[in-house]
Amino acid sequence: MHGAPHLATFLTDLLSVSRTETRPLIRLTLPICGAQLAQAGMSVTDVMMTGRVSATDLAAVSVGSSLWLPLMLFMTGTLMGLTPIVAHLLGAGSIERIRPSVHQALWVALALGLVSALLLWLTVTPIFRLMNVPHEVAQGSAAYLSAVAFGMPGVALFQALRAFSDGMNHTRPSLWISLVGLAVNIPSNFVLIYGGEGLTGLFGDWLPAWMQGLPALGALGCGIATALSMWVMCLAMAVYTRRSQAYGSVSLWHSPTPPRGRLIGELLYVGVPIGVAIFVEVTLFTLISLFIASLGEVTVAAHQVALNYTSILFMLPLALSMALTVRVGNTLGQGKVERARMVAWNGVLVSVLIALFNSVLLWFTAKPVMALYTHDTAVQRLALSLILLAMLYQISDSLQVSLAGALRGYKDTRIIMLITLFAYWAVGLAGGHWLGTRGLPGWTEPLGVHGYWIGLIAGLTVAAMLLGERLRRKTKGVANGRLDIAPD
């Protein structure tokens, strides 16, 4: 009974904050979602265009993407640590401290980009030998990755500047510049992948003679186009942050700051656990795809189709999570710890509404969308059964990502990493593999691909529960003055 008045007060305060907080949260969220979709569109473009050349080129790009994308996502996650740092400083009015923090992030981004490029240049051939990748595919993929490697420093610098812009409450620039990257990627892909022959088929006699002789580079051309898009986005973001009045008070490009150990340490303290958590999530889905490869072509196709569609819908709760980091960080920087608590839980409530919307959308659109992906009725039928399971985990998936976003606003990232490791691998992957290959002894036969998806549901649910408890303790502790929000 003693808890009832406290709960009533909490709900009243939450409703009050929700009226003023939800709109700015959504305003931040939608451009981030658009930017994520634009960047995902580049991968879709690569697959579609190389697939029209040959199966070998498509395989080369697909295998290569499985190596460079996790590296890029780790860099992105690590550099996302800059967003709550900037948000806190902005909220506190410490504008003069933002510039040196961003400069340290740029140093870190440059280092990460160069290391990633070296890894792609030096390690892919031994990895392909170890994986017994067919020679032609390995050769094409190595060429593709050698070109992509040139773009890794560019994309790392872009992500650092994007994290700075997001922390300043300016999320639209990343949307527009991601669209610029997509606009560069598509024609570059066409010219470099198909060469003069493809251009002649499109423009006919209008094409100058020198362009008709351009070579068709296939997978290598796709890699060059990807690297070009990365550097265009980097340079566009640099020019925008230099010229826009929105960042004028920071004077970002005035008086470069040399590397500073303390500031770099703070960024890595907050950012590296984010990068590891994202890497763990990516490897979870990669390993599941590898495990089900032995279950047949229909199963693999259905799994990929269902996963691809649900991944698109996940962009909205993911964007909300990133926006929530900014809003919580800004509010904490202002010293309004009780309001920050309400801002965090309001974001979690909005994520539940988004999850319900996604579930309804899946229910009404699954069948026609599956028909767009494939005409194979067996694949459609199996994919639809997986979509039904996906509807079950929408709430837990939206909850866990929004809770993680709120905790990042508190700079509380290490616990997210630990919870992610346990929930995704020990519960989701190990549990799903057990159900998929063995079932429940005495209860069910091996559940195949459905077992792996049930494992996903269990892992995401456990993550949501543990992160929810962590946020409850963190917000209550900070509000009572028992916990600090800065790194140790």
Please characterize this protein's 3D structure.
It is a single chain. With 488 residues, the chain is mostly helical. Helices cover 83% and strands 0% of the residues. The chain is built from 15 helices and no strands. Helix 1 packs across helix 11, helix 2 packs parallel to helix 6 and helix 11 runs parallel beside helix 13. The longest helix has 49 residues. It is globular. The two termini are 38 Å apart.
The gist of it:
This protein has 15 helices and no strands.
Total DSSP helices:
15
Instruction: Give the averaged pLDDT, no decimals.
Output: 86
Low confidence ranges: none
Q: From the alpha-carbon coordinates, what is the Rg to the nearest angstrom?
A: 23 Å
Structural class: mainly alpha
**What percent of the residues sit in helical stretches (DSSP H or I)?**
over 70%
Beta-strand percentage? under 5%
Beta-strand segment tally: 0
- What's the end-to-end separation, in Å? 38 Å
Shape: globular
Q: Describe the biggest sheet?
A: none
